[in-house]
Amino acid sequence: MAEANKRLELDAKNNSQAYDIEVLNGNDSEVIEMDLMLGVADLHIPQALAAAESAIAGNQPPIMVAGSSSSSETESDDSSDEESDDDGNDDEETSCPTEHETSNTVKEDAVREATGKSRSKKRTRIVELS
């Protein structure tokens, strides 16, 4: 890698016009496209993943409705979940999704429908590397 960088630097010094993006020589288009999504992003929530995929595809990410969640709602939901989990039934396979989980899915679907942007087959997918 270091050797390739040295060659590139030397070539850029010898032929600077070939590497100057501000010089148009007639063979170039008037638009310079830059891909800034280089690197690794930590996407821990589905909304972040959807926004990143939309950005890569060149779409505007869906806008979440203001007041869709707040820290006070989350805290109260967490405390009510703890109280309801103490009923002695530890069987998680038969448990239903909580109201909070269900409402997030419904809200995401509503936002996609409202913006008219559903997941298309041509949309770039972000792949998690292990």
UniProtKB/TrEMBL annotation:
Region: Disordered, residue numbers: 55-130
One Pfam family it belongs to: NOPCHAP1
An example molecular function term from Gene Ontology annotations: box C/D methylation guide snoRNP complex binding
One Gene Ontology biological process: box C/D snoRNP assembly
Composition bias, Acidic residues: 74-94
PANTHER family on file: NOP PROTEIN CHAPERONE 1 (PTHR28674:SF1), SIMILAR TO DNA SEGMENT, CHR 10, WAYNE STATE UNIVERSITY 102,-EXPRESSED (PTHR28674)
Name this polypeptide is given: Uncharacterized protein
Organism name: Gossypium davidsonii (Davidson's cotton)
Source lineage: Eukaryota, Viridiplantae, Streptophyta, Embryophyta, Tracheophyta
